[in-house]
Design brief:
The complex is a heterodimer of chains A (352) and B (390).
Chain A lengths: L3 H21 L12 E4 L5 E4 L2 E3 L12 H5 L6 E4 L5 E18 L2 E8 L8 E4 L3 E8 L8 E2 L19 E8 L4 E6 L5 H6 L3 E7 L8 E10 L9 E4 L5 H4 L2 E4 L4 E7 L7 E5 L4 E5 L8 E3 L1 E4 L4 E6 L5 E6 L3 H4 L4 E7 L14
Parallel strand pairs in A: 5-8, 7-12, 13-16, 15-23
Antiparallel strand pairs in A: 1-2, 4-5, 5-6, 8-10, 9-11, 11-12, 13-14, 16-21, 17-20, 17-22, 18-19, 18-21, 22-23
Chain B lengths: L3 H27 L15 E9 L2 E8 L5 E8 L2 E3 L1 E4 L3 E2 L4 E7 L8 E7 L4 E6 L10 H23 L2 H5 L3 H33 L6 H26 L6 H30 L3 H26 L6 H12 L1 H11 L3 H30 L5 H18 L3
Antiparallel strand pairs in B: 1-2, 2-7, 3-4, 3-6, 3-8, 5-7, 8-9
Helix pairs in contact in B: 2-6, 2-7, 2-8, 2-9, 4-5, 4-7, 4-10, 4-11, 5-6, 5-10, 6-7, 6-8, 6-9, 6-10, 7-8
Classes of the chains: A mainly beta (352), B alpha+beta (390).
């Protein structure tokens, strides 16, 4: 009935139509999931989909780095005492630069780390302690540790470059002054080394101590994941939107002390705004008398301070960058304030 | 037959052997374990091809136009991250595409940028100058586009056909002039369709599609296919004396029909994209412009007996596709489809030009007749002047 040539041309036409059709209407995929899933928008609407959910807020995601743990984790070092009675605190810090970390749900990015995380460990000492840091650079590039604070020039981590693949250096200095300080790698280009995550918090407590409080650390940071000179993600403690999904649980009428350090690169300023109450603000934490009673503080690069506040009422309170661009790209979170008379009840599981 | 068969097999084998060797070489060079080509890093790439604004939602169509599979992991509007859904799923193989639904209370008339971030943290963005609700295929809208298609395509072409009696009364030389005028008109249309197709591909398609080459390839394939179809058509109707001119007129009508489909696409898309003013402008411009197309169909038939039925049918063949174009442009606009249709139209028009030139040559014996050359020039000038209106 048909010649081979006709059959061939029919096949050719069908194949090319099929190919063109696929390119024109590829979204009509018959393999789509059968049962729809739902998700909640920022404004509370519930949306149904047959596909996957792209949601940095409400999806339970196992991220390697746990901001909840980092929040209240302080490394006091291995403690021993010198002959003159001085406390010696020894720390081991290892730098690496080949790690891929899930810095936001689904986004895997090469981070450079002190002890495997961004930020590095929160190093804490009391004023006058001898701090000794055994630093090993296991990275493929040169790195150093540069602490803000008082120390001799050769302990500044600028000229004593530590070589790659096992280079070692021991930083040793007397902790001081009192306050909250950053530490970071100071190898050029510094923006690159900091941008990839080589930084952490260094707290120096006054000898007489501070008032008992629920203490936590917030490192304000961000990532320029596509290297276009603008940060794609912002956060307190690395993971965008994390504390919005996992609110920080605190109690009414209990003193809360937050050590805030801004290590955000590229953007000239960052800021911190607290809902529902105001805080006493101690710039750099060096003075024991607050400079301000406020709910809004602006931070430039490496600027930091201590916040002290209490909540009178229970409920959920936001804290976030009042630069809304930053907050809507991840630098936002919640305090979940519980009645202190009903402590240790059920664990609040928000948004899951 | 039985004697021939082994030779067929041999022919087939000899045709396949080079492919097999090529495949072996490719596997050896690029396959697992090969270290020959280990340099360079493959960068992922995605293209946001279309953005629609519906009730409380912005919908982006995204395609993986890079060399490696990607996962879409984050969506943003104006650089602010929002929860979103991706259908059918977030993993895109090469050339695969998906729909990203971002719930968002957008404001009509404002510009928006939609950004998508992939698994390595790279963000891709597409801007929309003016947000306007995307048009749903309701009965009213279908009717609306049909009416517009009628005004743009059918009525002007039919008006143009009314020149038939005028052309029929012309002297031989003047007739040649008007036939050549048709060539000029079509030449202009063919070039403009090609230009438009290349422009759309440059603005909306990823480089991976090689826009200009896609247009040229489709246009030439369309040219060859219609050439083949035209020859068959003539063979079939070979007995009839009228076949020649009518076949040419039919081919012109088909070519113009494809072209008008492209015009319908442009109008439908302009209305959908919220550029109502541009849409209105296009309607008036194309309507004036398309009257000349009726003339082009009438010209080759002018030496035959007037057959109103056939003439009207050809007018419809040329005009009705404008309605389909408006529907496609309005409801399922895809830049890829637009490029393909415009390129097919361009190929069809160039084929018709060749057909008319052959016809003139058969009648006249040569093409360098002064009235022919003048006709082509005047045709192009007329088109250029009316095209300024669009």
């Amino acid at each position: 009935m048909f010649t081979n040539r006709q059959k061939m041309s029919v096949v050719l036409v069908i194949v090319s139509l099929g190919f063109v059709g696929y390119l024109v209407f590829p979204a009509m995929d018959i393999t789509a999931q059968e049962k729809p899933e739902t998700f909640v928008t920022h404004s509370g609407a519930v949306v149904q989909t047959t596909g996957d959910i792209l949601d940095p807020v409400y999806t339970i995601q196992e991220v390697e780095f746990d901001p909840q743990k980092y929040l209240r984790e302080f490394d006091y070092g291995k403690v021993s005492y010198l002959e003159d009675g001085t406390t010696l605190r020894e720390f081991t810090v290892i730098a690496e630069d080949d790690k891929m970390m899930e810095i936001a749900p689904g986004i895997f990015w090469n981070v450079w780390t002190f002890n495997g995380t961004v930020p590095g460990p929160t190093i804490r000492a009391t004023e006058g302690d001898l701090v000794r840091i055994h630093f090993t650079n296991n990275g493929s590039k040169e790195h150093t540790m540069h602490f803000h604070g008082n120390h001799p020039a050769e302990m500044d981590g600028i000229f004593e470059i530590v070589g790659s693949n096992g280079g070692q250096f021991t930083y040793e200095f007397i902790a001081g002054p009192v306050g909250v300080h950053p530490y970071h790698c100071h190898v050029m280009p510094v923006e690159e080394h900091i941008g990839h995550g080589l930084y952490g918090v260094f707290i120096v407590d006054p000898k007489e101590g501070r008032q008992q409080a629920d203490e936590m650390v917030m490192m304000l940071n961000g990532f320029d994941t596509d290297f276009d000179g603008e940060n794609n993600l912002y956060a307190a403690n690395t993971i965008p939107f994390y504390y919005q999904h996992h609110p920080i649980q605190i109690n009414t009428n209990e003193l809360i002390r937050v050590y805030v350090v801004n290590m955000l690169g590229l953007d000239p300023i960052n800021n911190f705004h607290l809902h529902g109450t105001l805080y006493e603000y101690y710039p750099t934490g060096t003075d024991l008398i607050p400079s301000e009673f406020t709910d809004m503080t602006t931070f430039s690069q490496s600027e930091r301070g201590i916040l002290e506040f209490e909540y009178e009422y229970t409920g959920r309170y936001m804290f976030h960058a009042h630069l809304t661009e930053f907050s809507e790209k991840g630098w936002t979170g919640l305090f979940y304030v519980k009645d202190s008379s009903q402590l240790n009840t059920e664990i609040y599981d928000y948004g899951s | 037959m039985e004697v021939k068969r082994p030779s067929n097999v041999k022919t087939a084998i000899s045709a396949v052997i080079p492919f097999v060797l090529l495949a072996v070489m490719i596997v050896y060079v690029f396959g697992p374990g090969s270290e020959l080509i280990g340099y360079g890093i493959l960068l992922p790439d995605i293209s946001i091809e279309k953005i629609e604004f519906v009730d409380s939602e912005i919908i982006a169509t995204v395609r993986n136009t890079g060399p490696i599979p990607v996962d879409i992991v984050m969506a943003d509007i104006n650089d602010r991250i929002y929860p979103a859904a991706i259908e059918p799923d977030k993993h895109l193989e090469r050339f695969q595409s998906a729909i990203v639904r971002i719930p968002f209370e957008w404001n009509e008339g404002e510009p928006y940028a939609v950004g998508l971030t992939i698994d390595d943290g790279t963000r891709f963005e597409k801007q929309v100058d003016v947000a306007a609700p995307s048009i749903q295929p309701t009965v009213e809208m279908i009717a609306y586009f049909a009416v517009i298609g009628t005004y743009v395509g059918i009525i002007p072409v039919l008006i143009g056909l009314l020149w038939f009696p005028f052309i029929a009364k012309l002297s031989r030389n003047k007739y040649k002039f008007f036939l050549a005028l048709t060539v000029g008109l079509l030449l202009f249309l063919g070039i403009s369709a090609t230009e438009e197709a290349i422009k759309i591909s440059a603005e909306n398609l990823s480089d991976v599609f090689n826009g200009a080459l896609l247009v040229v390839t489709v246009a030439i394939v369309s040219f060859l296919a219609l050439n083949y179809a035209g020859e068959k058509l003539k063979e079939r109707a070979g007995a009839s004396k009228l076949a020649g001119p009518i076949a040419i007129a039919l081919m012109i009508a088909i070519g113009i029909g494809l072209h008008n489909f492209g015009e319908g696409l442009a109008i439908g898309a302009a209305i959908v994209l919220g550029e109502a003013a541009l849409g209105a402008f296009l309607i008036v411009g194309f309507a004036i412009h398309n009257t000349t197309e009726g003339f082009a169909i009438a010209a080759p038939m002018a030496r035959t007996k007037l057959m109103i039925g056939r003439l009207a049918a050809m007018g419809m063949i040329a005009g009705v596709p404008a309605i389909f174009g408006a529907w496609v442009g309005g409801f399922v606009y895809s830049p890829f489809a637009a490029v393909i249709f415009l390129a097919i139209g361009a190929g069809a028009i160039f084929q018709v030009i060749v057909l008319i030139m052959k016809w003139i040559q058969n009648e006249e014996g040569k093409l360098s007749n002064s009235s022919v050359l003048a006709g082509i020039a005047v045709g192009m000038i007329i088109m250029y002047v009316t095209s300024i209106l669009v």
